[in-house]
Write a structure and sequence with these properties.
It is a single chain. With about 140 residues, this protein is mainly α. The protein is built from four helices and no strands. Helix 1 packs antiparallel against helix 2, helix 2 runs antiparallel to helix 3 and helix 2 runs parallel beside helix 4. It comes from Pinibacter soli. This is Inner membrane protein YiaA. Keywords: Membrane, Transmembrane, Transmembrane helix.
Length: about 140
């Protein structure tokens, strides 16, 4: 197991940071009512959690780590639900098309960043564990 490169780890954190920060700055500066801002913020936070959960479930299954089917299904349902909620919200919003596109792409960048950060974190821990295991074999 090889540790992820510093460049990929950095790019993942930057993608997550820029996506979340951009989305939230857009919300802060928007003319939406507070309940609308809360809706979009909650959808983003739910999506980030769901994306990490899906990544973990998929990876656990690939590594033959037990995952209950209900949790696996709920994770996929959750990430898909967040996307549907965002689409429905933006479809019905009284925003310019450019603003709708901004929120959609900031959302997708955030979700990608969350998945990549989770993957890198897990890969880095696995690489350290593999190195420690190899060192023990040499003694």
């Amino acid at each position: 197991m090889q540790k992820p490169s510093i460049a990929f780890v950095s790019a993942s954190w930057v993608a997550l940071f820029i996506g979340v920060l951009g989305f939230n700055i857009g919300l802060w500066n928007s003319g939406m009512q507070l309940n609308e801002k809360g809706y979009y913020f909650t959808v983003l936070m739910y999506a980030l959690f769901s994306a990490v959960s899906v990544q973990k479930c998929v990876r656990d299954k690939l590594e033959n780590i037990p995952v209950t089917e209900i949790y696996y299904g709920l994770s996929w349902f959750s990430i898909l639900l967040t996307m549907v909620l965002l689409i429905v919200g933006l479809w019905n919003a009284t925003l310019l098309p450019s603003e709708k596109g901004f929120y959609a792409f900031a959302f997708l960048l955030s979700v990608f960043g969350a998945i990549a950060v989770q993957k890198n974190t897990r890969d880095a821990k696995a690489a350290v564990k593999a190195m420690v295991g190899d060192d023990k074999k040499n003694f």
